[in-house]
Amino acid sequence: MLKINIDSRLKSISNLIRGEIIADIGSDHAYLPIWLYQNNKIKKAYAVDISQNSVNKIKNNLKKYNISEENIIPVLSDGFKNFKNNYNFSEITDIIIAGIGGKNIAEIISEIKNPSGINFIFQPSRKEDYLRDFLYKNKFNITSEIITEENKMIYNIINAKYTGESYAPNFMEIFAGKNITHQGYINKITKRLENILIKLDNKNGEKYNIKTEFGTYSDIKNIIAKLNAPPTSSQSFTQKLAHYFNKYNINFTGETAEKFYLFTEYLISENEKYNLTSIKDIDEIIVKHYIDSVIILKYFNIPENSRIIDVGTGAGFPALPLHIMRNDLQITFLDSSNKKINFIKNSPAINTNNLKFLCGRAEDFGKDLNLRETYDFALSRAVAKLNILCELAAPFIKPDGYFIAYKSKNAKDEIRESKNALKTLGLEIADIIEFDLNENGRSLIKIKKTKKISSAYPRNFSEITKNPL
Predict the structure, then answer these.
(1) pLDDT tens digits, residue range 369-393?
(2) What is the pTM of this model?
(3) Into which CATH architecture does domain 254-466 fall?
(4) pLDDT tens, 233-281?
(5) Which CATH architecture has domain 8-169?
């Protein structure tokens, strides 16, 4: 099958999608919906455009990539004006509007009578401040903002949800947004503000502290100073984090960066007492622990509110970085070490509302009917071989759920050795992703559970290791 490729801007947008049925407004060629559908990240899309010429291009691309118009539906409409009477708006989980101005996006959103429960992703080509102001005034919450750069162009991507709650943002939040760690973005904002000051200087703006739509003369000077102040230790860490997350095309926000910073300080401090990890260099912690843990969000669709168990979590990897990135996920940390479970529980970076902690052996908890076959995903970065991990993880997963194993790049021998385990436990390989992490080869093995497994599994650990399936 002919596969489509998309640029880093669209991939950054794709990483924010939470559901399975999207509406892509201003779809043009439908590149994003086609890529999402081909990569099994969505089940259905509405590719909406105001131009008949663009709709024709969408139809031609669907034929080119052999996709039915029942799966990606071309829609000729000005925003949602011609949409609601002819299509099922209520089934849409995510709305994407990219590449048009902030004012135009605001006009389209204002047409939606009930925006509750929808995940909105915007990439305004200009007037980001106007869009932010509109969203806050209309009781939306901006959950995150991401900056991506391609061919010297800087793109700002805004993720928002309707909450129905009022919020009064400050000038900085309206004009600069929530992500002010990208130097190119800081330079872009600074230049725009300096141009405003030049115009005000011609009107004695400083003397009279003239007020503009961007705030007073003093407001503008203050924000320029804040944007360009020397970085604190937290900001220096965030700059490193931004470098590596951008390098591997993984989205992050200022809020998540602060949580990673707090956890890193905590990890380094506690590691001196408990020997939690041999990795102590900040750059290596970011790459080998954080990037390695959360990179599954780049390659696989993890639906909102998924139930996840991390089997053999150790110091909290991969589950704790995933929690920092996605606090909607309902995560269980499982490890035999009470010391490590307590370390995770006491982390300053977590919100325990969606978290559970189990101290004990996986093969014992795997027989517990309150836990058995109740999870959408099981994860493991443990060093055991794949056939052993399958027997430990499979009992926790619902039928049609997945086990994702983090492995070195050359995992083919382990997969070959696991054929009997896969067959016996009702598992099948769904996907294998290979990638390089600072010149270290890594693999993600996604395994689907196709049926319930026998109550004979998991066996006692001694038997699992002595006679692996």
Answers:
(1) 999 999 999 999 977 899 999 999 9
(2) 0.66
(3) 3-Layer(aba) Sandwich (3.40)
(4) 777 888 888 888 888 888 877 778 888 988 998 999 888 778 899 988 8
(5) 3-Layer(aba) Sandwich (3.40)
